[in-house]
Amino acid sequence: MSERVSLTVGASHAGSRLDVFVTASVEGMTRSRIQRLLEEGNLLVGGKILKAGYKLKEGDTVELLIPEAKELNAKPEKMDLEIVYEDEDLAIVNKPRGLVVHPAHGHEDGTMVNGLMYAFEGRLSGINGVLRPGIVHRIDKDTSGLLAVCKSDRAHLVMSEKMKEHDIERVYHTVVRGTFKELEGTIDKPIGRCDQDRKKMCVRQDGRRAVTHYRVLETLGSYSYLEVRLETGRTHQIRVHMQSIGHPVMGDPLYGLVKETTAAGKKIAGMDFWPGQILHAKVLGFEHPVTGEYMRFDSELPEYFQTVLAVLRKEE
């Protein structure tokens, strides 16, 4: 059943942001879910729909309707997932490229969530209005690498806030087109959804702030092997940012080149694993959401990535 919550703002919370106040006052609430409740008209202040950043006044009445959590329309599937760490609150999975993380239209089954539901027998968190998803962040279908999965609601709440506060170390390795004069750099450009193509993201002034730090590990002919550190976590951030400075991720079907024109690129394009971007989530580091212990996971480059590097080194 849906749950109704009524809150009155006291003197100690006057001046607080609406989203911060509700997060602190209602158990199991995250800022992302608050935003959705606002968009759906389920969060009112004095009978009005206001922005998440609205500064509350003493005596304000906050009315909150929490819809009943929806059952995830997904069935457990036995899957060969590489679980590199697991405890009662969370797990770390090394996702292969080509695997969709969460069920969606066109991908109702065969996703990582289906596999997780089987592996953990449904013991996944139920935050954000959908039962048992466990997912606090995602990586693209054709990106490989480390992903944190929450098995308890207490872990999910803390990890969601860590994501919001950019308090998680996320390091990617990638191969991009072109070479760099400076071996290190930072891209600080806002990202939003493109008006012309709603499937794509793009740099736009009214977008959300996005910051990417990169370092050249190796120059390989007409390509560069990079280490990329995310300060923020926007959709397709690395792919959009690298394309925006003229260095698209190699093999990116959405933001990259229509076809590879170099000899090495053509050779790689003919391999069995193509198409797909050469992008791997290599490092994931954070304080454990329950114990507070700092944990850092570093995955090996997958075979497809190592093959690309070997071909490029040979073609130099």
Q: Which structural category fits the helices and strands? A: alpha+beta
Shape label: globular
What is the terminal-to-terminal distance? 64 Å
Instruction: List the uncertain runs.
Output: none
Query: How many distinct helices?
Result: 7
Mean pLDDT: 85
| Oligomer status | single chain
Order of helices and strands: EHHEEEEHEHEEEEEEHHEEH
Largest sheet: 9 strands, mixed
- Count of individual beta strands: 14
Amount of beta strand: 25-35%
How helix-rich are the residues, as a percent range?
A: 10-25%
Our Rg estimate from Cα atoms comes to: 21 Å
Outline the structure in words.
There is one protein chain. The chain is α+β, with helices and mostly antiparallel strands. Helices cover 21% and strands 27% of the residues. It is built from 7 helices and 14 strands. Strands 4, 5, 6, 7, 8, 11, 12, 13 and 14 form a 9-stranded mixed beta sheet that branches. Strands 1-3-2 form a 3-stranded antiparallel beta sheet. Helix 6 packs antiparallel against helix 7. The model has no long low-confidence stretch (mean pLDDT 85).
Features:
316 residues, 27% strand, three-stranded antiparallel β-sheet, globular
Q: What is the element layout, followed by pairings?
A:
Blueprint: E1 3-8, H1 18-25, H2 31-39, E2 43-45, E3 61-66, E4 82-86, E5 90-95, H3 112-119, E6 144-150, H4 153-164, E7 169-177, E8 184-188, E9 191-193, E10 201-203, E11 211-220, E12 223-230, H5 237-244, H6 263-269, E13 279-287, E14 294-298, H7 303-315
